[in-house]
Amino acid sequence: MGSDGQNWYLDLTYDQWTPLSVSGPRPAARYKHSAATVDGKLYIVGGSRNGRYLSDIQVFDLKSLSWSIIKLKSGVLPATSGHNMIKWENKLLFLAGHSKDVSDTVTVRFIDLQSYECGVIETFGKLPVARGGQSVTVFGSKLIMFGGEDQNRFLLNDVNVLDIETMTWSTVETTQTSPAPRFDHTAALHADRYLLILGGCSHSVFFNDLHVLDLETMEWSRPQLQGDLVSPRAGHAGVTLGDNWYIVGGGDNRSGVPETLVLNMSKLVVSVLATVKGRDPLASEGLSVSSALLDGEKFLVAFGGYNGKYNNEVYVMRPKPRDALHPKILQSPAAAAAAASVRAAYALTKPEKLDLSEREDSNFKEVHVDNTQQKLSAEISALGQQKKALESSLADVQAENANLKAKIEEVNSTHADLSKELQSVQGQLISERSTCAKLEAQIGELQKMLESMQSIEEEVQALRKEKSELERDMERAASVQKQGSGGAWKWITG
Questions:
Q1: What positions does the domain Acyl-CoA-binding occupy (predicted)?
Q2: Are residues 291 and 426 in the same domain?
Q3: DSSP state of 311
Q4: Which residue ranges of the chain lie beneath pLDDT 50?
Q5: pLDDT computed for residue 381 by the predictor
Q6: Count of the separate structural domains present in the chain
């Protein structure tokens, strides 16, 4: 589309991706970069291209539709890929990612958007192991980091929390079945309580599952999605607008995902919003999607990605306004019974919520009943607690079994892949050995031929010597004959 006018976005059709005609030079095409929108500008930092990490800071002005480059006044931002970028106050925070700067733990860096100064932020507590391909989600004044792949290609499914106000890391202990270790997934926050994890991959499996972590009870669950099917994918991008989670792109190393999905987090219903054709940049792995506020209306902005080639196109979607629904309670019955004790152990929510639950408990105790009812209620309550305890124990055992089964399946899958690679290598070795044997036989034959040629050469030299002697003898004989005949002629004529 053209860039005429400063309010071009008001003419966009709802729920359709539109490529933007950019004026001036564009940044290098890339994937696995980080992106964020601030005051109508899209910031793109780092990424990867042809196996090389990038460190540039590109800014796209959504009003003028033009790119510019930020030159830092102090500090250095290392070339990084697979990292996360979060807008916090007047700074951009960068977490984790793969780079040539080797570090054992996750590094947090910053860029001041006013002074353009860059640096490393000192963090405290239990620092997570360095990684890339993780997800980082804002939860109040905290950042929740899940999963990723460390520098030794070890897959992770741990949950770490960074308190931005104190810059202190903590590791969260969760219950029930955790998602299988993965990277290049996407995450979202729903109703200021639930962390949603969708898709991603291991070294041999691409996922399409949804996992939910209740941030009050720290309990994992795996609810079933309704509506359109979600194909396995990794390297996709997601952004939330209200109760709706927009999922774009991704792939499985064979083909890109052409559908843009919208997941209603209250209903857990998935719908296909738009579909692109062929090797469109929007059907890429490692692309980014951000939300931009333009004249009070929110838009989706996509950039980059890889689907056989690296992209640097900018696409915009004007999402149609959707009705806001009441948040759906995703908490399980077992979690509800243990909520109070777990809240005390893992307090990540606001104090008001805890105070509210205590007030509700005290009100419940003020209800008066007769002695018979009270005894019956007590027995029922005791039986209910025993049942819940047994259900909880059973759930824990089932969760542990499921977790072990998932690990066994992953080990078996990895073993199968390694076995295939070993068989392939053994086949190549057998082929190479056969080739070497043939070459050795040819070398032996050539050596024999060389030896026979040497003997032939000696015979030729001997024949040449005999020839030379014969020629000298013939010359001597001819000379003698000439001298004899000359004397006789002289005698006759004399």
A1: 377-477
A2: no
A3: B
A4: 2-4, 332-371, 486-494
A5: 67
A6: 2
Q: Which two tokens stand for residue 92?
A: 């951009």
Report d(CA 22, CA 164) in Å as an integer: 36
**Residue finishing a domain among 270, 297, 318:** 318
- Would 246 be classed as within a structural domain? yes
Closest CA to 85 of 130, 129, 36, 131: 36
Range(s) of the domain holding residue 184? 16-318
Q: How far apart are CA 470 and CA 468, in angstroms?
A: 5
Residue 2 lies in a domain: no
* pLDDT tens figures, 213-232: 999 999 999 999 999 999 99
DSSP states of 78-116 as a string? Answer: --EES-EEEEETTEEEEE--EESS--SB--EEEEETTT-
Helix or strand (DSSP H, E) at 61: strand 52-61
Q: With 0-12 CB in 10 A as exposed, 13-18 as middle and 19+ as buried, what is 392? A: middle
Q: Are residues 310 and 414 in the same domain?
A: no
Q: What is the pLDDT of residue 352?
A: 33
Distance CA 228, CA 7 (A): 34
pLDDT score for 239: 97
C-alpha Rg value of the chain to the nearest Å: 38
**Any idea which residue has 């993965």 for tokens?**
182
Total-model pTM: 0.67
Q: Six-digit token pair at 368?
A: 């008066």
Give the pLDDT confidence score for residue 479 in this predicted structure.
74
Q: Are residues 306 and 412 in the same domain?
A: no
The residue with tokens 């089964």 is 405
Measured CA to CA in angstroms, residue 93 lies from 70, 122, 364 at distances of: 16, 12, 46
With beta carbons less than 8 A apart as the criterion, state whether 167 and 236 touch. Answer: no
Q: For 326-359, how does the pLDDT look when each residue is reduced to its tens digit (9 = 90+)?
A: 555 555 444 444 343 333 333 344 333 323 233 3
* Angstrom distance (rounded) from CA 117 to CA 120: 11
Contact 198, 186 (CB under 8 A): yes
Rounded Cα–Cα distance for residues 162 and 136 (Å): 10
Tell me the C-alpha to C-alpha distance, in Å, between residue 128 and each of 51, 106, 173, 212, 375. Answer: 25, 6, 14, 21, 51
Token couple for 267: 């209903």
CATH number at residue 81: 2.120.10.80
What pLDDT score was predicted for residue 220? 98
Closest CA to 174 of 219, 222, 221, 128: 219
The answer to whether residue 302 sits within a structural domain is yes
Are residue 396 and residue 313 in the same domain, yes or no?
A: no
Place of tokens 């086949």: 427
Residue 198, C-beta contacts closer than 8 angstroms, at least 6 positions apart: 185, 186, 187, 188, 208, 209, 210, 211, 230, 236, 238, 245, 247, 263
**Measured between alpha carbons, how far is residue 254 from residues 72, 311, 393 in Å?**
38, 17, 42
Q: What is the pLDDT of residue 111?
A: 97
